[in-house]
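Good day; I would like, with your permission, to put a structural problem before you. The record follows directly beneath this note:
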Amino acid sequence: MNIEQFFTPYECQNTLPGKKVVVLAPHPDDEVFGCGGTLSQMAAAGAEIDIIIITDGVLRNEWPDLDSQLAEQKRQAKAEQRRQESIQAAEILGYPAPTFMGLQDGELLQHVHLSDELGSRLAAMCPDLILAPSIWEMHRDHRAVAQAALSFLLQATDCCQLAFYEVGVPLIPNLMVDISDNQNRKDQAMQCFGSQLEAQAYADQIRGLNRFRSYTLGQQVFSAEAFHLVARMDASLFTATYRPDHHTLALMRAEQAMRSSGINQLEELKQALEESQQNMDAIKRTLSWRITAPLRAIKSHWRKIWKWLSETK
């Protein structure tokens, strides 16, 4: 054991404690980026795994410059592409194809019935383990799903646990899963998401995160996925300690303030441009501007000649 291992408040395991597992993924790819290596190992160990992907992965305003009908066709095509990417990744990782709810990407915090809809599905499936993005995520959809999962856990009557996974923001872990032997398979699965890898190097970034998570785990572990596991009996204490709803409200207020600031700055810029144009128009109407017009033309002509001479040297 090295000195880092001595001080770490978690253990490294090869799986999570669950036999009937439901994974909540806000978008097609979160289930792979966040916990794909662990899910592959749990499936190989005989766990029953169901993946629920909640949004279609396409923003409402994508392709705003196109005709509305053509833009909608492109959005539908992209949604289908993203579904197929998750299905292909599931085949590689060895668990069943996901179920898709098809809700609007980017708007889950405004979806007032999200907790009820997910709660009904979870209650019918009776999992002993739920996986969801962590409450430390910054993405609004991730936070909405995290809060819905935690809300279900608070009301659950049976023995159920919730494992938060990380995607865009590192979480505070209390359990690590060693995916060293499965990293290559996860890499292959992440490459399925071509639509997303064109926009950002997600696969490289997640691989770096998994590599970093091995920092305290000794030389025998070179890749790991981090989780924060919450038991049903600890859900109330966890909620009171970390107050995810307060963090979400703070983020939304900050977002609104930035948006308002951006609008104000844009209005100020437009006003300044209008004033500059008015001043320029006033200058052009003056007698001195008209008298000096030939001189400006000669100056422009000599600039062109000088540029040509410089380029031909």
User: Anything to note?
Assistant: Residues 256-312 form one domain.
